[in-house]
Write a structure and sequence with these properties.
2 copies of one chain form a homodimer.
Chain A lengths: L18 H31 L18 H8 L9 H14 L9 E2 L8 H13 L10 H17 L8 E5 L2 H16 L3 H4 L6 E6 L4 H9 L7 E4 L9 H13 L3 E8 L11 H11 L2 E6 L23 E4 L12 E5 L2 H8 L12 H10 L21 H36 L3 E3 L7 E6 L8 H18 L6 E7 L2 E7 L6 H19 L1
GO molecular function, one term (chains A, B): pyridoxal phosphate binding
Pfam families (chains A, B): Pyridoxal_deC
InterPro entries (chains A, B): PyrdxlP-dep_de-COase, PyrdxlP-dep_Trfase, PyrdxlP-dep_Trfase_major
Chain lengths: 520, 520
């Protein structure tokens, strides 16, 4: 075992005055394995592209099938007293790579993100070397400027063009959505930060198909799940605007305080886009905050062909977009955008003389509002965080490298491939769409039960087949997740900008091979 | 300008089947500059060590003096339509490095973190290549196992050894502290997640010297600032236990609901450790949740010499520790540890059939409690997040590389160097300690006003001198922050495991040179 081998040359963090040589050595030691990890995915993709048989494609998803006990044993992590040095580092890295799913492989279509790209890796490497903190400008001048400029550029894409528009990064879409609730709550009832939510009975609205982070935000913020009115969707998974209107009126007439509506741009399962324009009009009528959760689908704004889906986004008060999803930026990269960042600051700012050196944050904020400026570069003031990583660089560097055009093509490719898969499913004798096809998700049943079964039995049977296929796919180099649907669970494939039609062909074939075992 | 130069070979994310070659090329293109960044800090440190004069030490902190307008102009970030490719990438990287403070330099003592180390950089590189998500086990088997094992090992260090003890990472100390409040709130009043905090009048207790994230957590969670009772500290900055006891009794007798006490291990400014044992006894007496905010000072647990400061930690219900502070792990790496992770899950779990594939999270949770097991590896269930980065790997890899012994020496060195600086200040004719010296912070005034001034005038004068010195130091290669104190603001130096006595000597000299200009 690793523990017994204590290397003669022991690294010691406090002594080294030659860390650049040590870093150079370590880079040399691990780069080969890391490049090999990417090369394996490249080889698998090339094999699929050339139409070779599944059998010879390297299986980059096999780790997904291993139970934790086995992973733990094979990993052999030893958090030991004594240093294990370079040997320990290299060996653990190699085992870790072998025991991980390979997200660079086109076969990885399991969640709403995929592998990153070379410039993504570089951006993380730069951030690691800079290793600084974006709570205050003084210790991160260039990265803070990059975050401000990238946030503003993104906000402009969505049509948020007010003098105080912009955005800040948050550690994930859930965090962005949560902050939007805090900001909206503060706008509606500024005394809550002081006095708590006691007896306010705040109510927020979001569709039944929206992400769970909205309900979690309500729980965390003291509003409670009961304060979340879940609005039904139409047959295509879009929020019903008449139902929203009725729910707001109902809440009002029962003495409650509606304050926030979330419209989803790209729902988690079906990829549906809520009708933003119509929802914005309802919000205006009732004076409610309009948040747009574009964690997944917001990235369509980069595409001339797809941005119509986001029509009306300029009327939102805040917008979440996760470039770590559709744009292939490394996990995590999420922005909360807004038309007036003074509201972000007003809700999140707190006096902390040891961190923020304005005479008092409260005074500085009042000054900013009075003078109609908001040029703070101490970005922690706009967020629930104190320490913050420079996630904005990861989008900025990709944007510089690929251009907006590059991201446009990347988004378009994901949509095109999903449309191709949709056509395959439609033509397939044993596959049936489970939901209207919208964007980069394709949701379908394999050999679903026909009408002769009663619903409960049919749902059970469909779920069983779906789970069986999902669990069988990694052995063929694919990862596809599933989700609850009208008649039991269905398969949900998520395409990305690297997925090709050939991969869709071979995946459909693999699904049929596995699924066929259920229906013989 | 960059925009006019469109490279002939345009990178395109959707086409490449040879991403390992592209990554290899990009690594080659940027590695030189990145290593140079580290080498500059190495050279500065070596120069200080050898006692050479300040003048020839490279100035790695100069960027801190530049206003945003200048940084923005010199950075020349162009988020363009067209790709700028490799040239754009390399040029932006070089400018970014030049316009950033160099946290690898010993002169960087501004905040509670410092530069990372070579293995830290490697750990971020590995995470970037793996680019996966730790919300569910299926897509991150090995990294989830590493998080569980590292969390458990850390919890054990603190004496949290129950069958369900362990820990999870959170995106920063503020997030860890916030989650602790949510978990404690849920234990005290499990119906709040459903019904909101309406009229509960929850009260939490923390010292006046604690981090602002505690008050922010109260605001966010709907408890409100008024629900935070700030307990006075003794002359050394430690929470007064009699005052805590009295505050709890007062709250109770006015019909409020005390539920949570935060004890700080290493306060932000003075580095004081609250008396954990005594606070734990009070918590037990009144049935309150005991959280230990060891964001900064929790790392002392790695040191045989220093761990006495954390005596009683095994009686805490939850503990925050940020290895990205005292241990030099890359920003961000924060753990929330607990003696019973079932409580974490119970407070944060939410049904989401599209993500968690147990029949229902609620049922699975009840099963877990009934069967006295909690072996979920779907770690998002224990946190407010959905998507999560594998921050635990960064500590695990450093631990493997350096051993616990390596971290011990690193912590000891930081404490020793701070003690050395303390002795320099004590001996210096124009310097005066502003607070009792505890751990890795040294807080002092330069030439503070004598008693002849009235307090307000003295405070103004001290603050002016302090700010003048803090702003003058970057030009001499040092960054030192300041904080509010008894008679105006004082300088706060934070040492880390790489800081040497020679650097303290030259910093004291530099402070005297700048400060002297104020008092001539």
């Amino acid at each position: 075992m690793v523990d017994q081998r204590v290397p003669t040359s022991v690294p010691f963090p406090t002594k080294s005055l030659d860390r650049h040589t040590e870093l150079s050595n370590l880079l040399e030691l691990v780069t080969g394995s890391l490049l090999e990890h990417v090369a394996e995915a490249d080889a698998a993709n090339a094999a699929r592209q050339s139409g070779r048989r599944n059998g010879i494609i390297p299986n980059n998803q096999a780790a997904a099938l291993l139970p934790p006990e086995i992973v733990s044993q094979r990993l052999g992590l030893s958090l030991s007293e004594k240093p294990q040095g370079k040997n320990g580092l290299v060996e653990l890295t190699d085992r870790l790579l072998r025991l991980s799913v390979n997200t660079w492989d086109q076969g990885f279509m399991h969640k709403l993100y995929s592998g990153t790209n070379p410039v993504g890796v570089i951006s993380e490497l730069i951030l690691a070397v800079l290793n600084t903190n974006l709570h205050v400008y003084t210790v991160s001048p260039a990265l803070s400027v990059i975050e401000k400029q990238t946030g503003r550029a993104l906000a402009r894409l969505f049509g948020l063009s007010g003098p105080y528009s912009g955005g800040i990064t948050q550690p994930g879409g859930s965090a962005s959505n949560f902050n939007s609730v805090l900001i909206a709550r503060h706008r509606a009832m500024p005394f809550i930060n002081e006095k708590g939510t006691s007896a306010q009975q705040l109510v927020m609205f979001t569709s039944v198909d929206s992400h769970y982070s909205l309900e979690k935000a309500a729980r965390m913020s003291g509003i409670g799940s009961q304060g979340v009115y879940k609005i039904p969707t139409d047959s295509e998974g879009r929020m019903s605007v008449p139902a929203l209107r009725k729910a707001i009126l109902d809440a009002r007439s029962s003495g409650k305080h509606p304050f926030y509506v979330n419209a989803t741009a790209g729902t988690t399962v079906r990829g549906a886009y809520d009708p933003i324009e119509e929802i914005a009009s309802v919000c205006k009528e009732f004076g409610l905050w309009l948040h747009l959760d574009g964690s997944l689908g917001g990235s369509a704004i980069f595409s001339g062909q797809q941005s119509w889906r986001l029509k009306g986004s300029e009327r939102a008060d805040s917008i979440t977009i996760n470039p770590h999803k559709m744009l292939g930026v490394p996990v995590t990269c999420s922005f909360l955008l807004g038309n007036d960042l003074r509201q972000f600051r007003s809700a999140n700012s707190i006096d902390a003389g040891y961190l923020f050196h304005e005479e008092s944050s409260k005074v500085a904020l009042q000054d900013a509002v009075a003078n109609n400026t908001d040029d703070t570069y101490d970005l922690a003031e706009l967020t629930p965080q104190c320490g913050r990583k420079g996630d904005a660089l990861k989008l900025a560097l990709g944007w510089v490298y690929y251009g907006r055009i590059g991201y446009e093509r990347y988004v378009d490719k994901a949509f095109d491939t999903a449309a191709y898969l949709f056509s395959l499913v439609e033509m397939h004798p044993r596959m049936e769409m489970a939901a209207v096809h919208h964007s980069v998700q394709v949701c379908f049943y394999y050999n679903p039960s026909s009408a002769e079964y009663e619903h409960k039995v049919a749902a059970k049977r469909n779920t069983a087949i779906t789970a069986y296929i999902s669990e069988g796919l990694p052995s063929k180099g694919f990862m596809v997740d599933y989700a609850p649907g009208p008649v039991g669970k269905f398969l949900r494939v998520v395409t990305n900008g690297t997925t090709t039609n050939e991969t869709m062909d071979s995946m459909v074939k693999a699904i049929d091979e596995i699924g066929h075992l259920c229906i013989m």
